[in-house]
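#lab-general

N.A. 3:47 PM
ok so I finally got the sequence cleaned up, no stray characters, all 145 residues accounted for. can someone with queue access submit it? mine expired

B.Y. 3:52 PM
send it over

N.A. 3:53 PM
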Amino acid sequence: MNMSPKEYQAYVQSKAKKSPIVKDTALAFVIGGAICVLGQAIQDGWAGTGLDKEAAGTATSCTLVLLSALLTGLNVYNKLARFGGAGTLVPITGFANSVVSPAIDFKSEGFITGMAAKMFTVAGPVIVFGTLASVIYGVILMLMG
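B.Y. 4:20 PM
back already:
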C-alpha cells in the first residue's frame, strides 16, 4: 500500500475515534471544581483550628499534596484522572501526582537508580521552566521599577 502523506493523514482521520469534547470538558470542570471545593473546605477547617489565613493556606497546600500522593500510591488518583481528565491537573494535586507516579513506576529498579532518579521525569521540566520564568519575570519587574 503506497500512500502520499495527505492520503495517509486522511486515512488516519477516518479511522480515529471522535473525542466527546463536550462530555470531557464538563467532566474536567466538575472534577477540577470538586478538587477546588475540597481545598476550600480543608482551608476552612485549618482556619477553624485557629490558624491565620496565610498559615491555613500553607497547611492546605501540604494537606492537598499529602492526599494526592496518598491517592496516587493507592491508584485512586489515576482512576479519577481517567474519569475527570484535565480536571485532575489542578496545580497542586496534579503536581504531586506527577512526582509520585514515576517514583512508583520505577521503584522496581531500586531506590537510587529507579525511584529517586525517575521521580522528577515529569515534574522536572515544570520546575526548571517555572523557576527560569520566575527569574526572568523578577528581572523584568526589577528593571521596570
